[in-house]
Amino acid sequence: MIPAHIRSASALVTSHRAVCDGFLSQALAKTEKASPYVLQARRLWQILTSVPDISTAGRRNDIQEELLFSAGFSDKARSHLTDDELATALQKILETIASRTPDGWREEIVYRYLLTKGDSLGGSMRNITGALAGKQFSDAVINALEDQHIAPTIVRSPSNPEKIQTIAWNARLLLFNKKPNFVGNNIDVILMNMPPGKKPIRQLLENKSGYLACGELKGGIDPAGADEHWKTANSALERIRQRFIDAQQPALFFVGAAIETAMAEEIFNQLQDARLAYAANFTVPQQVADLASWLVRL
């Protein structure tokens, strides 16, 4: 069955206007996220201008955090080293900076701090993009349930109230970002039949007969990464097909923000031959709403 709002491959293609709006939204989010880093860099510069040499700066406890970032140690890298190892490495790097730029070491430290923080910002933005895709999808599902006058039970992440972990209604359970052992990889969205009686989610995930639908979400808007995102999602969906070769196949769907012409044709072909049950473009709200309505009716 071809979705009502997708009668041709071109209906799935992301418009130029949507790409522009997406980049603007990301730029605004990056600006907001980068502001604390810029303020911290200014503070670091002010402190550095008050110390006579780089060795004195290295002994300042109030800027140790910033100096470690300047040395290239991200939060992830630091988790693998002891305090003594970090201190030794920092001293060597500061000595190297001083030898290479004896008159500009202050600027060098600030620039290096911003470079490392910028790299961290890039990683966090990718996580934010994925989180926004999940939120947009879960909001669409909740709206579809409300349209049917169904009040779902929603479980949110204890550490992030905006992140929904499960949505339950009637005999259905919608799970986000779960890894069934028999699949071996995370699945972005899983709709399951929820049998009577409360059972652990881990136990439900290993019961193939309970699967109704599985989907992959890709929220990145950059056209340059569209093809790679589709390849990743398509591989994940094919993996699910293979894992269910001995059982009833769940309905599979894909939702992406950056969909170029070539991949739109591939997606449409899969809709035609039923490898995909549904698809939608995140930048077309009507398509996402339509997919959510289909999902809650399964």
Give an overview in words.
This protein has 298 residues and is of the alpha/beta class. It folds into two domains: 9-27 and 125-297, Restriction Endonuclease; 33-123, Recoverin, domain 1 (Orthogonal Bundle). 53% of the residues lie in helices and 14% in strands. The chain has ten helices and seven strands. It has helices at 16-48, 54-58, 64-70, 75-78, 83-100, 105-147, 201-205, 226-243, 261-272, 285-297, and strands spanning 153-156, 164-169, 172-178, 187-193, 211-218, 251-256, 278-281. It has a seven-stranded mixed β-sheet with strand order 1-2-3-4-5-6-7, with helices on both faces. Helix 1 (16-48) runs antiparallel to helix 6 (105-147), helix 3 crosses helix 6 and helix 6 (105-147) crosses helix 10. The chain is elongated and about 70 Å long. The two termini are 14 Å apart. The relative contact order is 0.14.
Strand residue percentage: 5-15%
Distance between the termini: 14 Å
- Helices, by number, come to 10
Q: Return the structural class.
A: alpha/beta
CATH topology of the largest domain: Restriction Endonuclease
Tell me the count of domains.
2
**Which regions are unreliable across 5 or more consecutive residues at pLDDT < 50?**
none
Please identify the top-level CATH class of the largest domain.
Answer: Alpha Beta
Q: Quick one: biggest sheet?
A: 7 strands, mixed
Overall mean pLDDT stands at 88
